[in-house]
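Re-running the complex after MR caught last week's input typo. The corrected sequence lines follow. Everything else is unchanged.
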Amino acid sequence: MSQFRAKKLDIGCFINIRNIRDHTKRKVFAANEPEVQALRYIVRNTTFPQRVRAQAQLQLSQMHCYTRFTQIKNRCIMGGRGRGILSDFRMGRYQFRINALAGNLPGVKKASW
Amino acid sequence: MAVPRSRVLDLMKRQCYVFRTTYNPERLRMGTRILRERLKGTAVAEYYPPRIGTIKQLRSLYPQYEIEDEKEEEWLEHMQIARSRGKQPPKKKRTAAESKRFTKKK
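Corrected-run output:
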């Protein structure tokens, strides 16, 4: 949804549309997180009247899908891959291997025994 | 010897006061778990590294220096050459009569 996208490119890693989209989703999620949490609290609190809780639930379900955390996916910052990401290094498995062997990742060493 | 329930509740109340939790002896579901959760939005949004070191940023940071944008200059030169060869974009039509000139059916 391009209405949320930054007008100017604001990420400095590998760029493709999926990475840009995921970044946009992350920003939208961060901006809406307090509201989502407040609504979730109202929904889960059984001491509130049933009507209020139902309204909160409706409101929560009508929020944009980009405000949900489940939309966010870790992607490789070096190659844009969506699968096989080592989340500590934010890289796909092959990019991780290449960078580790090249010595770009401090503290990472090839094991041998 | 069994401790009476009222004493236990008193203790719980104190405990809640000290540790700033919600006093809830009936164990109702009050959703406080959600309020206790930490907000992870900022950490999540910082996943991709920001874009830094662009020419525009450098110019605004160091206005005392003259910073060249090679790419832009190359582009401008290219445009200059194109213009000299008569390949510039057509002039903007200002009036309705001008813009209609080429749309007539032949």
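None of the earlier attempt is carried over here. The radius of gyration of chain B is 36 Å. Chain B touches chain A through 21 residues (CB under 8 Å).
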